[in-house]
Amino acid sequence: MKSAAKPGKKAATKAAAAEPAAKTPRKRAESTAAGLQPSEAMAAVIGPEAVARTQVIKKLWDYIKANGLQDAANKRAINADAKLLAVFGKPQVTMFELAGIAGKHLS
Prior knowledge:
The protein is mainly alpha-helical and 107 residues long. It has helices at residues 5-18, 40-46, 53-66, 82-88, 98-104, and strands spanning 77-79, 92-94.
């Protein structure tokens, strides 16, 4: 015959195995996109504080729409005013170039 203590040991072992081990919280790698510093030319448009890349594009579009810089004939083109001319380097860019140009002004 089997002893009664033996099944109890198995049950206790299974219960202990089911409990998760105490986990230490893992640190996330710091993202460079979380706080990029804009250049002086870009800071004149979006502000001097460190900002995420996605927020840079959003702030650029807010500026473009607030100042009516989207080309009336070709909605994909953005006409530069004095501040954006320093950022773009040319009088007109397309919306597809915007992210690439903005990336050059962030560090």
